């Protein structure tokens, strides 16, 4: 993302240092992830230490620190979804997309992207609709009562085809 775009986002905020979340969210909405360069730039521009921005970016599960695919699939691993089989849903998605969990961060959040850059898969915390557990989200669309059997149908909506 170029500096001009980031400047335009920052200018919208009257008190940029108090509006870190909003600024980072807007950058991610455009760029799909928060690059290290963008965080460094924002840090200098609004005079908030990089370490503080990084802490915010890693604390909230909806922030991505790595480049992501065209479609982002988030599997809720909150308590209700966990009880209803979130781990199996996650495993099945890894299998269907041909990606495996190779890296994890301290908070167990992980982000995997298919080689063709079509899908990114990650684990997330409660989406606030536990009664529909297990729940997954693809981009901005929520899917409840998900089963392993209906995963291919959901993926096909986003151009996935069995290889
Ligand atoms: S635990 Fe999954 S939506 Fe709440």
Automatic annotation (TrEMBL):
Note accompanying the cofactor annotation: Binds 1 [2Fe-2S] cluster.
InterPro entries attached to this UniProt entry: NADP_DH_HndA-like, NuoE-like, NuoE_dom, NuoE_N, Thioredoxin-like_sf
GO molecular function: 2 iron, 2 sulfur cluster binding; metal ion binding; oxidoreductase activity
Record Pfam families: 2Fe-2S_thioredx (PF01257)
Signal sequence, start to end: none
Protein keywords: 2Fe-2S, Iron, Iron-sulfur, Metal-binding
Listed name of the protein: NAD(P)H-dependent oxidoreductase subunit E
Lineage of the organism: Bacteria, Pseudomonadati, Deferribacterota, Deferribacteres, Deferribacterales
